Amino acid sequence: MPRFNYKVKNKSGDTFKDTQEALSKADMVSRLRREGYFIISISEEKGKKRKNFFSFKKKQKKRQSIKLADLTFLARNLATTLSSGITLLRGLELVSYQSQSKKLEDILNKCSGHIRDGLSLAEAIAKYPKIFSQFWLGIVRVGESSGNLPFVLNQLADYLEMRMEFERKIKSALVYPIILSVAAVAAVFVFLKFIFPKFGTLFESFEIELPALTQLIFSLSEFVEQNWLIVLAALAGLYFLFRNLQRRPEAKKIIDQMVFKIPILGNIIFLIYIERFTSIVHIMLESGLTLVYTLDITADSISNTVFQRKLRLAAEKVKEGGPLSEQLSQEGVFPLLVSEMAKIGEETGTMPDVFKKLSDYYLKELTSKVESLVAAFEPLMIVVMGIIIGILVIALFLPLFKLSTLGG
Q1: Left if phi > 0, otherwise alpha if psi is -120 to 50, otherwise beta: which for 15?
Q2: Sign of torsion over alpha carbons 196, 199, 204, 206
Q3: Which domain, by its residues, includes 346?
Q4: 256-312 pLDDT tens trace
Q5: Which of the four, 31, 248, 292, 391, has the lowest number of CB atoms within 10 Å?
Q6: Is 146 helix (H, G, I), strand (E, B) or coil?
Q7: What's the pTM value of the predicted model, to 2 decimals?
């Protein structure tokens, strides 16, 4: 399909350029006029066949999953197109075409259909709660009601990009420890599945009494050799059992309380939720939402039931006229720094700025603790690997030493 470069003005007199596919130049002109634009110039793009071919090939390679990067791309590019004077429907069309996710492209096309039927953008994305969270819905709703949708979408994109950068750092830091862990498990599996059974046959032919350590390892090797499929199935069963328990409200409450008591990791998990709480509150207040609505949306956006319950209680107290800082200090979950900073924000009328500073502080602290944990984990894994491999090697060579003594 041919592509056309055009330059138009909207009803406000703003000028912008874009490129779009159409059946013909006349079809392109008709479409722009229907959208209410004044056409300054329009021309067919040169080399269209080659570009269309490669764009088609690229489109064929779109994945089905929706990643955080796709939602970040959506927020940033939709804000850019709307700021340029492009209509919401055209902006959604452009973003959906450029998206690397086929699933997101389909959902955005459906949202465009809902908007043509008279729904707002917030009402359209609300039909897909598994993709667009309450956080998204609240941001879009306040942007539409205030007439400043590009600004709030840029705020949302900034937050999502920050989350992406944090996740990228964590994943990069975990690469080496994961490789070490996989190598350790693979080495033990190879020893127990392939090497020890061969030596077991050799030792049986000499009819010698094996040391206790070697007998233990041989028993373990025999069990793994005969039941390795059962072991893998049991591990998979435990994983799916845990996932199923998380879907049950009563079990999830217990799990959400226990995760904070895990040695070392519990503190990091707590910081993750505190950082998410302060970041979301900052974005929502900066976008113009009321404090009560912000707390309700934040509770829905945090997956931990402990924080959800405390935030909803705080929202109820604030709705009755109580100060947020007092409620945060009474709930017994939030750090003293959060309640004291919230008190300063209430007294000075700078709550969005205060929560911005809190989110920056907790993000730095969380990043530092995770990096320190990973740095300590690497040498620990090397030591553990050395001990495990050393035990296996000693268990293997003890009978050989005994054989050499008997031979002597």
Answers
A1: beta
A2: negative
A3: 167-408
A4: 888 888 887 888 889 989 998 999 899 888 888 888 888 988 888 888 888 889 998
A5: 248
A6: helix
A7: 0.69
